[in-house]
Each structure stands twice: as structure tokens, then as C-alpha cells.
Amino acid sequence: MPIAKKELMADGYSDYTVTAEGDNTVVYTYTFKNDMDSAKVIADIDKNKEQMGESVARALLPRFNGRVINPVAKALFINSDGSLIATLTIRLTALR
User: Between vectors from CA 10 to CA 77 and to CA 37, what angle results, nearest 5°?
Assistant: First the structure.
């Protein structure tokens, strides 16, 4: 999930942002360049969610360094028309 913006743009995203939500959540918002088949995106997320969770945990847990209680990462996948396709929530404490 945390990937260089240049790589994301090449992979079909028009934008991506990283924001904070509350005291313990990092939100990654991925917006597709083109209209996507929601069912296919959801199937791809379901297929890869364990790998994505491990990747996020490796990237974020060292930065949190025990200072964040119950850290969470959330990924929002937005279609080109602005509609929400899917949300993936990863509870990082479960991956320690």
C-alpha cells in the first residue's frame, strides 16, 4: 500500500493521498484514472488483503514506535467518478 506516488500513477491511479483520522488511523485514498469494475476491484482487494496488510505494517509500525495505541491503516479505493468502490481496514496490532 504505501507506494511511491510515481509508481501509483503508472498503475492507473489519477491521485492518491495520505491523511490522518483521529489519533490512531492513517488513511490512504487511491483514486483510479479510469472507470473500474467495482466487483473486480473488490475481488482483487480480497485476494491481496493479507499481503497488503503485511506491507502496511512493515512501513508504519516502525514509525509509530509504540506511541500509537491500536494503530489502524485504512485504504479507500475511489472510482474515477468519485464513488467509493471499497474500504480496506487493517488493524496493525493484529499484525505485530
Answer: 40
